[in-house]
Amino acid sequence: MSASLIGDIIGVIFLLVIAIILLTLSLRVIAEWQKAVVLRLGRVLGVKGPGLIFLIPFVDKPIVIDLRIVNVDVPPQTIVTKDNVTVTIDAVVYYKVIDPLKAVTSVSNYQTAVLNISQTSLRDIIGQMELDEILSKREEINKKLQAILDEVTEGWGIKVTNVTVRDIRLSQELLSAMAEQAKAERLRRAKIILSEGERQAASILSEASTFYQNNSVALQLRFLEMLSDISQRGNMVIVVPAGQELYSTLSVLKTKPNT
User: Fold this and answer.
1) Which of 146, 169, 203, 243 has the fewest CB atoms found within 10 Å of its own CB?
2) Which residues of 134-155 are buried (b: 16+ CB within 10 A; e: fewer)?
3) How far is CA 60 from CA 43, 63, 70, 121, in A?
4) Which of the 8 DSSP states describes residue 129?
5) Any residues with CB less than 8 A from the CB of 130 and at least 6 apart, and which?
6) CA dist 144 to 169, 230, 236, Å?
7) Rounded to the nearest 10 degrees, how much is the dihedral formed by the CA atoms of 24, 25, 31, 32?
8) pLDDT tens digits, residue range 216-229?
9) How many CA atoms lie within 13 A of 171 on its CB side?
10) Distance CA 138, CA 136 (A)
C-alpha cells in the first residue's frame, strides 16, 4: 500500500471524526419540562424544545429554562413591627417560568431576583403591621405578599403560584409576657362569669322572697321540705323550735284535704 493511499485513509478518518464531533455538538436533547432559548452570535434566535433540537456548533448558545414549579425558602427575617415588637419570620415562595424569553432577556438571574424581592416585600409588609395582626392574619399576609410578587415578576415572565408564611418566632421574654396576659384574661373572664352567676342567683332569690312574703303557707311548706331533705342525709336528730306559725300552717292543710 502506497504512502499516498495511507495518507488519504487517515485524512478520511480524521474528517469522519471531526464530522461526528460536530454532529454531537449540534444536537441537544431538551426534556419535556424544559425550554431552550437559543442565542446565535449573541442575538436571540428563538425558543426551542422540548425534544431534539439542532444547533450550529460554536455559533448557537442554548440557555435551558426549567418550566416546573420551583420553591424558594425565604431565610428568617428579623423585623420590627409597627408596635415596636421584634419578630423573626420566614416564608416559602412557589413560582414557575411562563415566558422563557422574558426570563432570559429581562433579568440577569431570575432565581436570585425572586428571592431578593421576596425578602424585601416580606419585611415591608410585616413592618406595617402590629403583632396581633401578624399572629391572626397570616392568610392575609400570604395574599398581600403574593400580589406584590406577581406585580413585580410579571415583567420577568414568571408567575408566583403560592406564598406561605412558614414560621413566626417571638423572643422568650415576649412569650412569657403573652402567657401572663393570657392567664390574666382567663381569670378576668372567670370572675365575670362568677359575678354574673351570683347576680342572676340574687335576682331569682329576690323574686322568691317576694313570693314567700305574700304567701306564708308556701314558705312553711318550703321549710318542711327542707327539713325532709336534711333528715335523709344521715342518722341525725334535728331539733327545730316550732311556734304558732308552723301549727297554723298544719291547721290550714288539715282544712284543705285536696291540697
Assistant:
1) 243
2) beeeeeebbebbbebbeebbee
3) 9, 10, 27, 38
4) S
5) 81, 82, 83, 85
6) 20, 68, 74
7) -90
8) 767 667 766 776 77
9) 10
10) 6
What are the beta bridge partners of residue 173? none
The tens place of each residue's pLDDT in the chain, 259 residues long, gives: 566 777 777 777 878 888 788 888 888 889 999 999 999 988 999 999 888 899 888 888 999 999 999 999 999 999 988 888 889 999 999 999 999 999 999 998 999 999 999 999 999 999 999 988 888 889 999 999 999 999 999 999 999 999 999 888 887 777 676 677 777 888 888 889 988 888 888 888 888 777 777 777 676 677 667 767 766 766 666 666 555 555 455 454 445 555 4
The grid coordinates of residue 184 equal 390574666
Residue 143's identity, in one-letter code, is K
- 177: cell is 409576657
Q: Say which residue the cell 342525709 belongs to.
A: 233
User: Taking the model in full, what pTM does it have?
Assistant: 0.65
Q: Which three cell numbers stand for residue 25?
A: 455538538
Which are the contacts of 145, defined by CB distance < 8 A and separation ≥ 6? 91, 118, 121, 122, 125, 163, 165
In the chain, the amino acid numbered 113 is A
Cell of 75: 431565610
